Amino acid sequence: MSTPLLEMSGVRKRYGGVQALDGAGLTAVRGEVHALLGPNGSGKSTLDKTLAGTVVPDEGTIRIDGAEARIGGPRDAHALGVAAVYQQLSIVGDLTVTQNVVLGLEPVRRLGFLDHRAARDRAAAALERFAAAFAGRLPLDRPVGALGPGERQIVEVAKALARGPRILVLDEATASLHKEQVEVLFDVVRELRADGVLVVFTSHRLDEVFALCDRATVLRNGRTVGTVELAATDEDELVRLMVGDAPHQAPRASGATAAAAVAGDGADRTLTPSSTTLEVRGLTTDRLRDVSFAVRAGEVLGLGGLQGQGQSELLLALFGGAHATGGEAVLDGRPLPLGSPAKAARAGVALVPGDRGRQGMFAVRPIQENLSLASMHRRATAKVALRAGTERAAAQTMVERLRIKIGSLADPVSTLSGGNQQKVVIGKWLLDRPRVVLLDDPTKGVDVSSKEEIYAIVRGLAADGAVVILNSSDNRELTELSDRVLVLFEGAVAEELAAEAISESRLVSSALRLAPGEKL
Ligand SMILES: Nc1ncnc2c1ncn2[C@@H]1O[C@H](COP(=O)(O)OP(=O)(O)OP(=O)(O)O)[C@@H](O)[C@H]1O
């Protein structure tokens, strides 16, 4: 192996009561895609951030090209050729694509004025790598806020590339990308590798890790537990390294066990009548065309197809968050009010959103409050007094069940790792035992063992009489959880797959058949 380009060793970082890094390290060479893996809260982002200069470690050494690197802030990291893309996007919605890509780059000044053309050229050069796939779809002068989450993420990557890095850190950079966007990003990463760049790649999607990376370093509880050659290992071995001796397959909870665990405190819960049925007839919005289907209590209905074909819009519309121009939804024979999330929540509908930062929670408020917001809302409107102790116990149950790694329930959610934040969003709604559970790509960024726990809770809710509708970009997840799958195409239901027809390959071929020109 050639001299390492990057050597990090003995890195420690404590946040209040939490030892985020406890002797972590990573050694990687130029022209390598190196995965950084570990369960939620194991310290991956913190290690990435010490490299990018946004977190200063308490202890530890970083060597770049054999020389000790003092990274006291992002400017030091830039000067050393390190650029990073994080889970939480750093782009500014009101600025254009160009302005975002050059932000902090100091474009050329002429006669004391910013040379906007030079800035635009620089952004265009960085975006050029994505040009073939996104031709005409990333208008450089549009505010980034008007773009979709995947496009915003691409802008973020372009911003990092505009810095011409030797080391590029991608922290969950694929989480909000559609499959075809992931392929484009992977092509760019492979080009960078061929150019000798070191890419440090963090993802919970092991299929991506095996498809893209050369080696992987695994963290557990803030410590490095090993580095493996991916060609010489398999998924089971990687998972064993990640979770240690703990079994990663959580026992499949029966409906009753899961329900009891979800309720936790035995507080005022009304059991869902087993007859619950949701009927949707001719639902039409800007992005949905005449969608009709029925789901019974206890059923998990999957939404498949290429991503962005109206799956999220359908869930949003059922939660009252999208303007319905036609059609209706009927829950247990009574019209479900469309157009008001508050009314939908009162009727027992819960939406677990995919984009946690924007829709799912109040980041600066305590974890306990976030976990109990949904149930507080229902109880407050029902004029039932809140008992702080009860809320606390319920929140604590969810923290244990989903293995949410926290210091204290009183800490703000913003202090949690990305995956743990997503678990809070899920826990918040599942605590309330909803009658209709709408899940929009719920386990993005959630680690393997917690995914199984979430699957068990979802199955438990269904077994207990809830209607569950699941949109997932992960075909394996759809296959594991769904009793039926509706394949959507351009806002309409194009095909329905019954239980025996659901498989990963069938889901892919179904989506491809519908859109022959598209590449997955
Ligand atoms: N600013 C902060 N304040 C307090 N605690 C923090 C802060 N940032 C991270 N932590 C804690 O440090 C630990 C490691 O977090 P980190 O984000 O590095 O984990 P991760 O491995 O990236 O997790 P994930 O897979 O969920 O993204 C977690 O317990 C987290 O709650």
UniProtKB/TrEMBL annotation:
Molecular function in Gene Ontology: ATP binding; ATP hydrolysis activity
SUPFAM superfamilies: P-loop containing nucleoside triphosphate hydrolases
Keyword Repeat (UniProt): yes
High-level lineage: Bacteria, Bacillati, Actinomycetota, Actinomycetes, Jiangellales
Record Gene3D superfamilies: P-loop containing nucleotide triphosphate hydrolases
Stretches assigned to the ABC transporter domain: 6-246, 271-515
Short name of one Pfam family: ABC_tran
Alphabetical keyword list: ATP-binding, Nucleotide-binding, Repeat, Transport
Name of the protein: Ribose transport system ATP-binding protein
PANTHER family: CARBOHYDRATE TRANSPORT ATP-BINDING PROTEIN MG119-RELATED, GALACTOFURANOSE TRANSPORTER ATP-BINDING PROTEIN YTFR
